[in-house]
Amino acid sequence: MLLQNQRPQLRPQTTAHLAQTMALLELTVEELHQKVEAELARNPALELIDEFRCPTCHKILHNKQLCPTCTNTMGGSPDQPIVYLSSHEDFFVKPRISSYSNDLPDDNFAPDRETLPAYILRQVGPDLHVDDRQIAVHILTAIDEDGFLTIKPLEIALYHHVPLSRVEKIIHLIQHADPIGVGSAGPKDALLVQLEVLSEHLAIPHLAEKAILAGIELLSPHHLPELARHLNIPASQAKEIVRFISDNLNPFPGRAHWGDQTNAGSSEGQENTYHFPDVIISRATEEENTPLVVEIAMPFYGSLRVNPLFREALQEAPIEKSELWQEDLEQATLLVKCLQQRNHTIVRLMQTLVVKQRDFILYGDAYLKPITRADLADELEVHESTMSRAVSDKAVQLPNRRIIPLSMFFDRSLHIRTVLKQLIEQETYTLSDSQIAVLLLGMGFPVARRTVAKYRSIEGILPAHLRNRSYKPHLMLPQHNEQSVAV
DNA sequence: CTATGGCACGGATT
DNA sequence: AATCCGTGCCATAG
User: Fold this and answer.
1) What is the pLDDT of residues A349-372, one digit of tens each?
2) Which of A98, A154, A193, A362 could bridge A254 with an S-S bond, Cβ 3.0-4.6 Å?
3) Model pTM?
4) Non-local CB neighbours of A424 within 8 Å, separated by 6+ positions
5) A164 and A250 inside one domain
Protein backbone atom coordinates (compact mmCIF):
# COMPACT_ATOMS: atom_id res chain seq x y z
CA MET A 1 0.00 0.00 0.00
CA LEU A 2 1.76 3.07 -1.15
CA LEU A 3 -1.14 5.39 -0.63
CA GLN A 4 -0.20 6.69 2.75
CA ASN A 5 2.26 9.50 2.67
CA GLN A 6 2.98 10.77 6.11
CA ARG A 7 6.59 11.68 6.01
CA PRO A 8 7.42 13.37 2.76
CA GLN A 9 10.59 14.94 4.02
CA LEU A 10 12.17 11.64 4.88
CA ARG A 11 11.40 9.60 1.86
CA PRO A 12 14.48 8.48 0.00
CA GLN A 13 15.05 10.76 -2.93
CA THR A 14 17.66 8.97 -4.90
CA THR A 15 18.80 5.46 -5.42
CA ALA A 16 22.04 6.31 -3.72
CA HIS A 17 20.11 7.51 -0.75
CA LEU A 18 18.13 4.35 -0.67
CA ALA A 19 21.13 2.13 -1.03
CA GLN A 20 23.04 3.79 1.72
CA THR A 21 20.11 3.88 4.06
CA MET A 22 19.75 0.18 3.62
CA ALA A 23 23.39 -0.37 4.26
CA LEU A 24 23.28 1.71 7.40
CA LEU A 25 20.22 -0.04 8.69
CA GLU A 26 22.03 -3.31 8.83
CA LEU A 27 24.77 -1.97 10.99
CA THR A 28 25.05 -2.27 14.72
CA VAL A 29 25.71 0.84 16.74
CA GLU A 30 29.26 -0.21 17.14
CA GLU A 31 29.73 -0.72 13.44
CA LEU A 32 27.96 2.46 12.63
CA HIS A 33 30.08 4.27 15.11
CA GLN A 34 33.17 3.08 13.34
CA LYS A 35 31.88 4.05 9.97
CA VAL A 36 30.91 7.52 11.03
CA GLU A 37 34.18 7.99 12.76
CA ALA A 38 36.10 7.00 9.68
CA GLU A 39 34.06 9.25 7.48
CA LEU A 40 34.47 12.07 9.90
CA ALA A 41 38.21 11.75 9.71
CA ARG A 42 38.26 11.50 5.96
CA ASN A 43 35.65 13.95 4.85
CA PRO A 44 36.21 17.59 5.69
CA ALA A 45 32.65 18.46 4.78
CA LEU A 46 31.38 16.52 7.71
CA GLU A 47 31.29 18.12 11.08
CA LEU A 48 30.53 16.99 14.56
CA ILE A 49 29.09 19.66 16.75
CA ASP A 50 28.12 19.48 20.34
CA GLU A 51 24.46 19.84 19.83
CA PHE A 52 21.74 17.37 20.23
CA ARG A 53 18.22 17.77 19.07
CA CYS A 54 15.21 16.04 20.41
CA PRO A 55 13.96 13.77 17.68
CA THR A 56 10.37 14.69 18.32
CA CYS A 57 10.27 18.37 19.00
CA HIS A 58 13.67 19.31 17.57
CA LYS A 59 14.58 21.44 20.50
CA ILE A 60 18.23 21.54 21.31
CA LEU A 61 19.18 19.43 24.27
CA HIS A 62 22.37 19.53 26.19
CA ASN A 63 22.59 16.37 28.15
CA LYS A 64 21.88 14.02 25.28
CA GLN A 65 19.10 12.69 27.35
CA LEU A 66 15.38 12.96 27.57
CA CYS A 67 13.84 16.08 26.25
CA PRO A 68 11.92 17.52 29.19
CA THR A 69 9.25 19.06 27.05
CA CYS A 70 8.47 15.88 25.25
CA THR A 71 8.61 13.76 28.31
CA ASN A 72 5.94 15.84 29.87
CA THR A 73 3.67 16.05 26.93
CA MET A 74 3.97 12.78 25.16
CA GLY A 75 5.72 10.37 27.49
CA GLY A 76 3.40 8.45 29.45
CA SER A 77 1.02 5.65 29.15
CA PRO A 78 1.61 1.97 28.66
CA ASP A 79 1.01 2.32 24.97
CA GLN A 80 2.89 5.55 24.69
CA PRO A 81 6.45 4.51 25.31
CA ILE A 82 9.09 7.12 25.78
CA VAL A 83 11.54 6.65 22.98
CA TYR A 84 14.69 8.59 22.71
CA LEU A 85 18.13 8.46 21.21
CA SER A 86 21.21 8.29 23.24
CA SER A 87 24.85 8.49 22.46
CA HIS A 88 26.54 5.21 21.89
CA GLU A 89 29.65 6.36 23.64
CA ASP A 90 27.73 6.84 26.82
CA PHE A 91 26.65 3.27 26.55
CA PHE A 92 30.16 2.07 26.51
CA VAL A 93 30.95 3.63 29.81
CA LYS A 94 27.96 2.22 31.58
CA PRO A 95 28.52 -1.23 32.92
CA ARG A 96 26.28 -3.67 31.20
CA ILE A 97 24.79 -6.70 32.72
CA SER A 98 24.71 -10.34 31.84
CA SER A 99 21.85 -12.29 30.45
CA TYR A 100 22.21 -14.89 33.07
CA SER A 101 19.54 -15.48 35.59
CA ASN A 102 21.62 -14.78 38.64
CA ASP A 103 19.36 -12.55 40.61
CA LEU A 104 16.62 -11.70 38.28
CA PRO A 105 13.10 -11.60 39.55
CA ASP A 106 11.57 -15.02 39.42
CA ASP A 107 8.92 -14.40 36.85
CA ASN A 108 11.50 -13.07 34.52
CA PHE A 109 14.23 -15.59 34.65
CA ALA A 110 16.50 -16.24 31.75
CA PRO A 111 15.07 -19.40 30.43
CA ASP A 112 17.41 -21.39 28.37
CA ARG A 113 20.68 -20.93 30.15
CA GLU A 114 22.07 -22.33 33.26
CA THR A 115 23.37 -19.72 35.60
CA LEU A 116 26.74 -18.27 34.95
CA PRO A 117 28.42 -19.93 37.95
CA ALA A 118 27.07 -23.32 36.96
CA TYR A 119 28.19 -22.81 33.43
CA ILE A 120 31.70 -22.01 34.52
CA LEU A 121 31.87 -24.75 37.05
CA ARG A 122 31.02 -27.26 34.41
CA GLN A 123 34.02 -26.11 32.45
CA VAL A 124 36.60 -25.96 35.17
CA GLY A 125 35.28 -28.74 37.35
CA PRO A 126 37.08 -31.58 35.61
CA ASP A 127 40.42 -29.83 35.93
CA LEU A 128 40.18 -29.38 39.63
CA HIS A 129 41.10 -31.47 42.59
CA VAL A 130 38.11 -32.46 44.56
CA ASP A 131 39.29 -30.31 47.42
CA ASP A 132 39.61 -27.36 45.16
CA ARG A 133 36.09 -27.65 43.87
CA GLN A 134 34.44 -26.14 46.85
CA ILE A 135 36.90 -23.33 46.75
CA ALA A 136 35.95 -22.79 43.16
CA VAL A 137 32.31 -22.85 44.14
CA HIS A 138 33.01 -20.30 46.79
CA ILE A 139 34.68 -18.08 44.24
CA LEU A 140 31.89 -18.50 41.77
CA THR A 141 29.21 -17.55 44.20
CA ALA A 142 31.00 -14.28 44.72
CA ILE A 143 30.84 -13.34 41.07
CA ASP A 144 28.58 -10.45 40.29
CA GLU A 145 26.46 -9.79 37.26
CA ASP A 146 29.29 -8.26 35.31
CA GLY A 147 31.40 -11.32 35.89
CA PHE A 148 33.64 -9.78 38.48
CA LEU A 149 34.84 -11.19 41.73
CA THR A 150 33.39 -9.24 44.58
CA ILE A 151 35.63 -10.48 47.35
CA LYS A 152 39.35 -10.60 47.77
CA PRO A 153 41.24 -13.80 46.98
CA LEU A 154 42.91 -13.47 50.33
CA GLU A 155 39.61 -13.75 52.15
CA ILE A 156 38.87 -16.96 50.35
CA ALA A 157 42.27 -18.33 51.15
CA LEU A 158 41.86 -17.54 54.82
CA TYR A 159 38.40 -18.98 54.92
CA HIS A 160 39.52 -22.28 53.49
CA HIS A 161 42.87 -22.31 55.23
CA VAL A 162 44.82 -22.71 52.06
CA PRO A 163 47.68 -20.73 50.64
CA LEU A 164 46.80 -17.71 48.60
CA SER A 165 48.64 -19.09 45.63
CA ARG A 166 46.29 -22.00 45.45
CA VAL A 167 43.28 -19.76 45.34
CA GLU A 168 44.92 -17.69 42.70
CA LYS A 169 45.58 -20.75 40.64
CA ILE A 170 41.90 -21.56 40.69
CA ILE A 171 40.93 -18.05 39.82
CA HIS A 172 43.34 -18.21 36.96
CA LEU A 173 41.58 -21.28 35.71
CA ILE A 174 38.20 -19.63 35.99
CA GLN A 175 39.39 -16.58 34.17
CA HIS A 176 40.30 -18.70 31.21
CA ALA A 177 36.97 -20.41 31.03
CA ASP A 178 34.24 -19.02 28.86
CA PRO A 179 33.35 -16.19 29.08
CA ILE A 180 37.01 -15.39 29.17
CA GLY A 181 38.03 -13.01 31.88
CA VAL A 182 35.21 -13.86 34.22
CA GLY A 183 36.21 -13.90 37.84
CA SER A 184 38.58 -11.02 37.49
CA ALA A 185 38.67 -8.27 40.02
CA GLY A 186 37.55 -5.63 37.56
CA PRO A 187 37.38 -4.59 33.95
CA LYS A 188 41.09 -4.03 33.81
CA ASP A 189 42.04 -7.55 34.80
CA ALA A 190 39.36 -9.01 32.61
CA LEU A 191 40.73 -7.20 29.61
CA LEU A 192 44.23 -8.31 30.39
CA VAL A 193 43.26 -11.92 30.58
CA GLN A 194 41.37 -11.69 27.34
CA LEU A 195 44.31 -10.03 25.74
CA GLU A 196 46.58 -12.78 26.90
CA VAL A 197 44.34 -15.50 25.56
CA LEU A 198 43.85 -13.69 22.32
CA SER A 199 47.55 -13.22 21.83
CA GLU A 200 47.93 -16.91 21.26
CA HIS A 201 46.02 -16.71 18.05
CA LEU A 202 46.09 -13.16 16.96
CA ALA A 203 48.54 -10.41 16.51
CA ILE A 204 47.90 -7.76 19.07
CA PRO A 205 48.96 -4.20 18.70
CA HIS A 206 51.94 -3.11 20.63
CA LEU A 207 51.32 -1.44 23.92
CA ALA A 208 47.78 -2.71 24.11
CA GLU A 209 48.61 -4.11 27.48
CA LYS A 210 50.02 -0.85 28.67
CA ALA A 211 46.98 0.94 27.39
CA ILE A 212 44.75 -1.24 29.46
CA LEU A 213 46.92 -0.79 32.47
CA ALA A 214 46.63 2.92 32.03
CA GLY A 215 43.00 2.57 32.93
CA ILE A 216 39.88 1.85 31.04
CA GLU A 217 38.67 5.38 31.36
CA LEU A 218 41.28 6.31 28.83
CA LEU A 219 40.03 3.75 26.37
CA SER A 220 36.98 5.71 25.44
CA PRO A 221 37.16 7.45 22.09
CA HIS A 222 36.92 10.70 24.00
CA HIS A 223 40.24 10.37 25.64
CA LEU A 224 42.42 9.46 22.74
CA PRO A 225 44.85 12.34 23.07
CA GLU A 226 45.32 11.67 26.72
CA LEU A 227 46.02 8.02 26.11
CA ALA A 228 48.44 8.85 23.35
CA ARG A 229 50.31 11.17 25.64
CA HIS A 230 50.39 8.61 28.37
CA LEU A 231 51.90 5.99 26.13
CA ASN A 232 54.12 8.35 24.25
CA ILE A 233 52.76 7.37 20.91
CA PRO A 234 50.98 9.20 18.10
CA ALA A 235 47.25 9.52 18.36
CA SER A 236 46.66 7.38 15.32
CA GLN A 237 48.37 4.47 16.96
CA ALA A 238 46.44 5.01 20.15
CA LYS A 239 43.29 4.97 18.15
CA GLU A 240 44.19 1.68 16.63
CA ILE A 241 44.74 0.18 20.01
CA VAL A 242 41.46 1.44 21.32
CA ARG A 243 39.74 0.13 18.26
CA PHE A 244 41.31 -3.25 18.68
CA ILE A 245 40.31 -3.43 22.27
CA SER A 246 36.73 -2.45 21.76
CA ASP A 247 36.45 -4.79 18.84
CA ASN A 248 37.88 -7.83 20.43
CA LEU A 249 37.67 -7.52 24.14
CA ASN A 250 34.85 -7.20 26.55
CA PRO A 251 35.34 -5.28 29.76
CA PHE A 252 32.36 -6.99 31.33
CA PRO A 253 32.77 -10.69 30.79
CA GLY A 254 29.52 -11.56 32.49
CA ARG A 255 27.65 -9.62 29.91
CA ALA A 256 25.37 -11.36 27.54
CA HIS A 257 26.69 -13.81 25.14
CA TRP A 258 24.67 -15.95 22.90
CA GLY A 259 25.18 -17.71 19.67
CA ASP A 260 27.68 -20.50 19.63
CA GLN A 261 28.28 -20.63 23.29
CA THR A 262 29.05 -24.28 22.79
CA ASN A 263 32.67 -23.90 21.93
CA ALA A 264 34.15 -22.37 25.00
CA GLY A 265 36.88 -22.26 22.50
CA SER A 266 40.43 -21.36 22.97
CA SER A 267 40.22 -20.79 19.27
CA GLU A 268 38.47 -17.96 17.50
CA GLY A 269 38.62 -15.59 20.36
CA GLN A 270 37.48 -12.86 18.07
CA GLU A 271 34.22 -14.60 17.33
CA ASN A 272 31.73 -11.96 18.21
CA THR A 273 29.74 -13.69 20.84
CA TYR A 274 29.47 -10.64 22.99
CA HIS A 275 26.80 -8.24 22.10
CA PHE A 276 26.50 -4.65 22.82
CA PRO A 277 22.95 -3.46 23.23
CA ASP A 278 21.67 -1.29 20.42
CA VAL A 279 18.57 -0.56 22.37
CA ILE A 280 17.91 -0.46 26.05
CA ILE A 281 14.43 -0.81 27.37
CA SER A 282 13.61 0.03 30.92
CA ARG A 283 10.57 0.89 32.91
CA ALA A 284 9.88 4.45 33.89
CA THR A 285 8.49 3.51 37.28
CA GLU A 286 7.97 0.39 39.29
CA GLU A 287 4.25 0.55 38.82
CA GLU A 288 2.36 -2.04 36.94
CA ASN A 289 1.30 0.22 34.13
CA THR A 290 4.51 2.10 33.81
CA PRO A 291 5.37 3.48 30.43
CA LEU A 292 8.42 1.88 28.94
CA VAL A 293 11.51 3.86 28.29
CA VAL A 294 13.31 2.97 25.14
CA GLU A 295 16.80 4.20 24.79
CA ILE A 296 18.28 3.81 21.36
CA ALA A 297 21.97 3.98 20.86
CA MET A 298 22.74 6.35 18.05
CA PRO A 299 26.28 7.48 17.54
CA PHE A 300 26.42 11.21 17.00
CA TYR A 301 22.83 11.59 16.05
CA GLY A 302 21.79 15.17 15.81
CA SER A 303 25.24 16.47 16.28
CA LEU A 304 26.49 15.36 12.93
CA ARG A 305 25.98 17.81 10.14
CA VAL A 306 27.44 19.28 7.03
CA ASN A 307 29.94 21.91 7.87
CA PRO A 308 28.50 25.24 6.76
CA LEU A 309 31.96 26.71 6.45
CA PHE A 310 32.88 24.03 4.04
CA ARG A 311 29.86 24.77 1.98
CA GLU A 312 30.89 28.38 1.77
CA ALA A 313 34.44 27.54 0.98
CA LEU A 314 33.26 25.52 -1.92
CA GLN A 315 32.19 28.66 -3.71
CA GLU A 316 35.72 29.88 -3.88
CA ALA A 317 37.34 26.57 -4.35
CA PRO A 318 40.23 26.29 -6.73
CA ILE A 319 39.17 24.64 -9.92
CA GLU A 320 41.22 21.54 -9.50
CA LYS A 321 39.77 20.88 -6.07
CA SER A 322 36.28 21.94 -6.77
CA GLU A 323 35.07 18.67 -8.13
CA LEU A 324 36.55 16.69 -5.31
CA TRP A 325 35.05 18.96 -2.72
CA GLN A 326 31.73 18.88 -4.38
CA GLU A 327 31.79 15.15 -4.08
CA ASP A 328 32.70 15.28 -0.44
CA LEU A 329 29.91 17.67 0.19
CA GLU A 330 27.40 15.46 -1.49
CA GLN A 331 28.59 12.45 0.39
CA ALA A 332 28.38 14.26 3.66
CA THR A 333 24.86 15.41 3.01
CA LEU A 334 23.92 11.96 1.96
CA LEU A 335 25.37 10.38 5.05
CA VAL A 336 23.57 12.76 7.33
CA LYS A 337 20.29 12.19 5.57
CA CYS A 338 20.68 8.47 5.59
CA LEU A 339 21.54 8.49 9.21
CA GLN A 340 18.39 10.37 9.98
CA GLN A 341 16.45 7.98 7.87
CA ARG A 342 17.96 5.06 9.71
CA ASN A 343 17.20 6.56 13.07
CA HIS A 344 13.71 7.36 12.07
CA THR A 345 13.09 3.82 10.96
CA ILE A 346 14.49 2.29 14.09
CA VAL A 347 12.63 4.66 16.35
CA ARG A 348 9.34 3.86 14.71
CA LEU A 349 10.17 0.20 14.74
CA MET A 350 10.88 0.16 18.43
CA GLN A 351 7.92 2.32 19.21
CA THR A 352 5.43 -0.10 17.83
CA LEU A 353 7.35 -3.17 18.78
CA VAL A 354 7.52 -2.15 22.38
CA VAL A 355 3.80 -1.61 22.54
CA LYS A 356 3.02 -4.90 20.86
CA GLN A 357 5.40 -6.93 22.94
CA ARG A 358 4.91 -5.10 26.18
CA ASP A 359 3.94 -8.21 28.08
CA PHE A 360 6.94 -10.04 26.81
CA ILE A 361 9.25 -7.27 27.85
CA LEU A 362 7.81 -6.97 31.31
CA TYR A 363 6.72 -10.44 32.19
CA GLY A 364 8.92 -12.79 30.24
CA ASP A 365 9.14 -15.25 27.45
CA ALA A 366 5.78 -16.84 27.92
CA TYR A 367 4.08 -13.65 26.85
CA LEU A 368 5.81 -13.19 23.55
CA LYS A 369 3.31 -12.71 20.82
CA PRO A 370 4.26 -14.19 17.51
CA ILE A 371 4.69 -11.23 15.22
CA THR A 372 6.28 -11.51 11.85
CA ARG A 373 8.58 -8.96 10.39
CA ALA A 374 6.26 -8.78 7.44
CA ASP A 375 3.29 -7.81 9.61
CA LEU A 376 5.16 -5.03 11.21
CA ALA A 377 6.64 -3.95 7.92
CA ASP A 378 3.34 -3.20 6.37
CA GLU A 379 2.04 -1.60 9.49
CA LEU A 380 4.96 0.78 9.39
CA GLU A 381 4.66 1.09 5.65
CA VAL A 382 8.17 0.07 4.92
CA HIS A 383 9.37 -2.71 2.73
CA GLU A 384 9.81 -6.01 4.45
CA SER A 385 13.41 -6.22 3.45
CA THR A 386 13.89 -2.95 5.24
CA MET A 387 12.46 -4.49 8.35
CA SER A 388 14.73 -7.45 8.03
CA ARG A 389 17.74 -5.23 7.84
CA ALA A 390 16.63 -3.14 10.75
CA VAL A 391 16.14 -6.17 12.92
CA SER A 392 19.13 -8.21 11.96
CA ASP A 393 22.08 -8.36 14.28
CA LYS A 394 20.75 -5.84 16.74
CA ALA A 395 20.77 -6.43 20.45
CA VAL A 396 18.25 -5.24 22.98
CA GLN A 397 18.53 -4.99 26.70
CA LEU A 398 15.29 -5.62 28.55
CA PRO A 399 14.27 -4.08 31.85
CA ASN A 400 15.29 -7.30 33.56
CA ARG A 401 18.72 -6.65 32.18
CA ARG A 402 18.81 -9.53 29.85
CA ILE A 403 20.43 -8.78 26.55
CA ILE A 404 18.73 -10.55 23.72
CA PRO A 405 18.82 -10.38 19.95
CA LEU A 406 16.18 -8.12 18.53
CA SER A 407 15.12 -10.97 16.34
CA MET A 408 13.81 -12.74 19.41
CA PHE A 409 10.88 -10.35 19.30
CA PHE A 410 9.85 -12.20 16.20
CA ASP A 411 10.30 -15.72 17.44
CA ARG A 412 7.37 -17.69 16.25
CA SER A 413 7.33 -20.31 18.95
CA LEU A 414 9.09 -18.99 21.99
CA HIS A 415 5.90 -18.58 23.97
CA ILE A 416 4.82 -22.13 23.31
CA ARG A 417 8.25 -23.46 24.14
CA THR A 418 8.19 -21.60 27.39
CA VAL A 419 4.82 -22.98 28.33
CA LEU A 420 6.04 -26.38 27.36
CA LYS A 421 9.01 -26.00 29.61
CA GLN A 422 6.85 -24.99 32.51
CA LEU A 423 4.61 -27.91 31.83
CA ILE A 424 7.49 -30.31 32.08
CA GLU A 425 8.94 -28.63 35.12
CA GLN A 426 5.70 -28.99 36.94
CA GLU A 427 4.78 -32.40 35.69
CA THR A 428 3.75 -34.89 38.34
CA TYR A 429 4.71 -37.81 36.21
CA THR A 430 6.71 -37.89 33.03
CA LEU A 431 4.57 -36.70 30.19
CA SER A 432 4.99 -38.12 26.76
CA ASP A 433 5.14 -35.90 23.74
CA SER A 434 1.65 -36.72 22.62
CA GLN A 435 0.25 -36.00 26.06
CA ILE A 436 1.99 -32.67 26.05
CA ALA A 437 0.55 -31.99 22.65
CA VAL A 438 -2.94 -32.53 24.01
CA LEU A 439 -2.28 -30.30 27.01
CA LEU A 440 -1.00 -27.55 24.79
CA LEU A 441 -4.00 -27.90 22.57
CA GLY A 442 -6.17 -27.42 25.62
CA MET A 443 -4.30 -24.25 26.38
CA GLY A 444 -4.93 -22.91 22.95
CA PHE A 445 -1.77 -23.99 21.20
CA PRO A 446 -2.56 -26.48 18.52
CA VAL A 447 0.75 -28.18 17.87
CA ALA A 448 1.46 -31.53 16.37
CA ARG A 449 3.04 -34.21 18.43
CA ARG A 450 6.07 -34.12 16.22
CA THR A 451 6.47 -30.46 16.89
CA VAL A 452 6.48 -30.96 20.61
CA ALA A 453 9.48 -33.19 20.10
CA LYS A 454 11.20 -30.50 18.12
CA TYR A 455 10.59 -27.90 20.77
CA ARG A 456 11.89 -30.24 23.39
CA SER A 457 15.11 -30.72 21.56
CA ILE A 458 15.45 -27.00 21.00
CA GLU A 459 15.12 -26.47 24.71
CA GLY A 460 17.46 -29.31 25.42
CA ILE A 461 14.88 -31.31 27.32
CA LEU A 462 15.33 -35.04 27.34
CA PRO A 463 12.64 -37.40 26.04
CA ALA A 464 10.15 -38.74 28.54
CA HIS A 465 11.73 -42.08 29.24
CA LEU A 466 15.08 -40.54 30.05
CA ARG A 467 13.57 -37.76 32.04
CA ASN A 468 13.34 -39.70 35.27
CA ARG A 469 11.57 -37.76 37.89
CA SER A 470 13.53 -34.94 39.28
CA TYR A 471 11.85 -34.43 42.59
CA LYS A 472 10.31 -31.08 43.00
CA PRO A 473 9.69 -30.39 46.64
CA HIS A 474 7.37 -27.55 45.85
CA LEU A 475 4.19 -27.87 43.91
CA MET A 476 3.86 -31.62 43.98
CA LEU A 477 0.14 -31.71 44.42
CA PRO A 478 -1.55 -33.13 41.37
CA GLN A 479 -3.37 -29.90 40.92
CA HIS A 480 -4.59 -30.06 37.42
CA ASN A 481 -4.54 -26.65 35.99
CA GLU A 482 -7.99 -27.02 34.62
CA GLN A 483 -7.88 -24.32 32.11
CA SER A 484 -11.65 -24.44 31.72
CA VAL A 485 -11.57 -25.79 28.24
CA ALA A 486 -14.69 -24.15 27.03
CA VAL A 487 -15.23 -26.47 24.14
C1' DC B 1 2.57 -51.51 20.71
C1' DT B 2 4.09 -46.77 22.07
C1' DA B 3 7.29 -43.05 22.03
C1' DT B 4 10.88 -40.72 19.42
C1' DG B 5 14.10 -39.18 16.19
C1' DG B 6 15.23 -38.73 11.03
C1' DC B 7 14.14 -37.30 6.53
C1' DA B 8 11.80 -34.71 3.56
C1' DC B 9 8.12 -31.86 1.73
C1' DG B 10 5.31 -27.57 1.34
C1' DG B 11 4.08 -23.37 2.87
C1' DA B 12 5.43 -19.31 5.28
C1' DT B 13 9.04 -15.97 6.17
C1' DT B 14 12.91 -13.28 5.16
C1' DA C 1 15.35 -16.84 -4.44
C1' DA C 2 16.92 -18.80 -0.19
C1' DT C 3 15.69 -20.25 4.43
C1' DC C 4 13.18 -21.57 8.18
C1' DC C 5 9.56 -24.11 10.45
C1' DG C 6 5.78 -27.24 11.34
C1' DT C 7 4.31 -31.72 10.09
C1' DG C 8 3.54 -36.25 8.28
C1' DC C 9 5.44 -40.69 7.42
C1' DC C 10 8.50 -44.31 8.57
C1' DA C 11 12.12 -46.81 10.88
C1' DT C 12 13.81 -47.95 15.21
C1' DA C 13 14.33 -48.41 20.17
C1' DG C 14 12.26 -49.66 24.35
Assistant:
1) 998 999 999 999 998 889 999 999
2) A98
3) 0.65
4) A431, A436, A461, A467
5) yes
